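FAQ: What does the model actually see?

It sees only this:
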Amino acid sequence: MSEHSNLSEKRMTFLIFVCGEGLGHTGRCISLASELQNSGHNVFIGAYGYSRKLIEESGYSVEEIPQELRLSGKKGSLDLKSSIVSTARTISISNLSSVRKLVEKTKPDFVISDGYYNGIIAAQHKKVPVSIIVNQSSMQDFFKNKGFLIGIAGSVVRKFYTWIYKKVDIIFVPDFKPPFTICASNLSFPENVKDKIEFSGPVLRKKYDEVVPIDGLKRPHVLCSIGGFGYRLQIFKKLLEAAKMDSNINYTLIGGPDLDYSLLEDVPENVEVRRLIPDPFPYYRSVDLVICTGGHGTITESLSYGLPVISFPDHSHNEQENNAQFIEDNEYGRRLSYSVTPGELLQVIKTLINDERYRSNASVLKEQAVLSYGPEYIRKRLVAYSSSVSRSIC
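And it is asked to produce this:
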């Protein structure tokens, strides 16, 4: 049992559904699984693709579930039309049926969905209490000013999300409470569900003081976690060029399984390229700076460890652009575009490493993360909610 254990809690069974589009969903669910298991509860996880592999690499058993969201892009931009078409093709009765069978098989007391909506529908069908973890609900920005047909699709999506929020029992925002909420610009809920919304604090896999730094990692050191989408390859290439300009700065690059590593030519000695790092937290304890996209998960983890961030949001991906702008506006780091030159990138890296102002600002969020540990908050809240429902039925 961990320090979070509570032997007085009734043993429950939880089923966690994970959206595999982005590492943020996956990291949060690994964190929750650990918290729940260490407190004596049974945990089942449904995931797919890279997300499933990462969860398995972290030591958890995972059931395969159908992919329901497919993102595509090119040249640093999210292709919304292509993503909508690809996602629509995944919608089927058989997919929902397979998810429903997983609910029947595991018999959970509570379903937790991190961005996976078939799981919510299946839980509702089986009358199982369900919570959703969400850091993006302002969907109208995705579809704004993108043409008539995209607008129609946006209207349908908004109605679906509104229906989902009404159906779930609790809505967890895995972020700092205002005014420190990273994803604040991405949140917009119907008035009639606002009493369900709770800010849990960052849902981190490990607390800062539980992590041992990497011994002997050369400093200064930059961790670059961009993910495996092929259209982000140009960021890696520019970073390699920047690394060649100053051999005193060291880098670890994580690309994910979908990146064509053969295209990363002439890697300098001060750069280590990694395909997969199941546990990035020892790096967070050891590096000076993180370079990532605009995804909520990596940004939250980095800032919770007091690290300045360089964010490369995908163009036209409103959620990522808003997160990156939050970093820029509050001087937790910098927002950069795919068009940045290697020389400009190196200059920003040097600034964030050497200017104490950025680290000082990020340290404020590090202190907030210590005060509001999301996994523990969510566990206690779900157990309390389940107990209250049981009492009301009796």
